[in-house]
Amino acid sequence: MTIDNFIDILPHSAADLESLLDCANRLKSEPNAFERPLSGYTVGMILQKPSMRTRVSFEVGLNRLGGHLIQLSPTDIGFGTREPLSDMMGVLSRYCNALILRVKHHTDLLACLQHSSIPIINGLSDESHPCQALADIMTVLECKSRDAKIVYIGDGNNVCQSLIDICSVLSLNLTVITPEGHAPKHPRNATITHTMTACAGADVLYTDVWMSMGQESVDVAVFQPYQINDSVLATAQPDAIVMHCLPAVRGEEITDSVLTGSQSVVFQQAENRMYAQQAIMIMLMRRSLWKQWY
User: Which of 159, 252, 276, 279 is least crowded, fewest Cβ atoms below 10 Å from its Cβ?
Assistant: First the structure.
């Protein structure tokens, strides 16, 4: 039996993503619209990397939908060491209705996928962060029109790659500004440049940390010209919004004045993770109900 998953953005069509966004918006505006559709459902969560937003947004979101989340420590279950991933997934597939995996290596996520008979949601890997991307675009479309100029500044990391992917599928206007040698692996339809002049006229300015979790070091000097500060913000549209997936290193990729300024929507963006992930969980675990709605 083929099981649908949410591992990356690209396998999903524009229609699929639009449906998820519509559902997420309904969940936000009408919290009781769906009458606890995941009552009786259990989701397991394995976090190999530290997390606040991913853990809390999934747990609170699932609870509001009537479901139950089990937090599984990688140390306690011996992820990939105590027993083969195939055995672990065989067992968890008999206990849970879905799994959320936040892994160090995307290859481990794919290995789990091979042996799972339940849906898997990518809570983050070193290659992609699709849940974040869905929440990002939900936030952009709440604040701006579909022809908005979105500018991402910084490392071409997992967050950047998933943002590129979703903008490509939905035909949104994305420019990525990175230092030389830090461009994303798969640019798709995004405009890639190394000059900050591309911020001019932006409707959305988005950045992420210069050093992602798992990286031992980063040449800060290379990234310093790519900071979002008041001067950079002044080159964007007067009503431009500022985004950051958090946690932020204030004074590095973004200044405190911009992160906490009136044009920042970072907490709205963080909140939207919950609604986007609620939609994903409903889509994956209540497929028959989902087809009635979409």
Answer: 252
